[in-house]
Design goal:
about 65% helix; EF-hand domain family member D2; about 220 residues; EF-hand-dom_pair; repeat; 2 strands; EFHD1/2
Length: about 220
């Protein structure tokens, strides 16, 4: 009897341990996949849709299901390329340089209107989510053909799958050109920053020389 009772207890304990392991595994499976830090996808998109006004992370794949993962990666790469400040936004000046590089320069007012059309949080710059809205509107035919946003979407997005081998060749040629232009763009930014540092250093030296001259006259 004692052996039979011990056997029953052992089976019950085993079942409980198995259930606990199964629940733990289900909880782990339910947890969202972590997003790499530093990605523009890791952005709080405000309290809309969040109970108690909390902030939630933006998931491009979840919200923009009409785009493939490769398309989203290409759009993120383009966004990062022209986010010269690396702050997760494209501001007015960065958008100006971007449109110039794409061969569709815009007036100051035109650039402001481009941002305004998708600037949902009214901060006068483009977050990655708002950048993706441009392509959503373009795909839905909601952009005017003569608008700056239409030009941006048309000049920066090439679909390989619908153009066959010839289109694929053009796609990769365009990609190579985009990489070259991106490098030139970064070089120009670095050159501007270096020029500002040089001017600041010259100003500092002139002030120091002026102070020395003042001291000499005061003696």
């Amino acid at each position: 009897m004692a052996e039979e009772l011990a056997e029953r207890l052992g089976r019950r304990l085993g079942m409980r341990e198995g259930d606990a392991e199964q629940q733990q595994q289900q909880q782990q499976d339910a947890e969202p996949t972590p997003v790499p830090p530093g990605s523009p996808a890791v952005r709080a998109v405000g309290s809309e849709g969040s109970p108690g006004g909390g902030r939630r992370l933006f998931s491009p794949a979840a919200e923009f299901r009409e785009f493939s993962r490769r398309q989203l990666r290409d759009m993120e790469r383009l966004f990062r390329q022209y986010d010269a400040g690396k702050d997760g936004f494209i501001d007015l000046m960065e958008l100006k340089l971007m449109m110039e590089k794409l061969g569709a320069p815009q007036t100051h007012l035109g650039l402001k209107n481009m941002i305004k059309e998708v600037d949902e949080d009214l901060d006068s710059k483009l977050s990655f989510r708002e950048f993706l809205l441009i392509f959503r509107k373009a795909a839905a035919g909601e952009l005017q053909e003569d608008s700056g946003l239409h030009a941006l979407a048309r000049l920066s997005e090439i679909d390989v799958s619908t153009e066959g081998v010839k289109g694929a060749k053009s796609f990769f040629e365009a990609k190579a050109q985009a990489v070259t232009e991106g490098s030139r763009f970064e070089e120009e930014i670095r050159a501007e920053q270096e020029e500002k540092r040089r001017q600041a250093e010259e100003m500092k030296q002139r002030k120091a020389a002026f102070k020395e001259l003042q001291s000499a006259f005061a003696q």
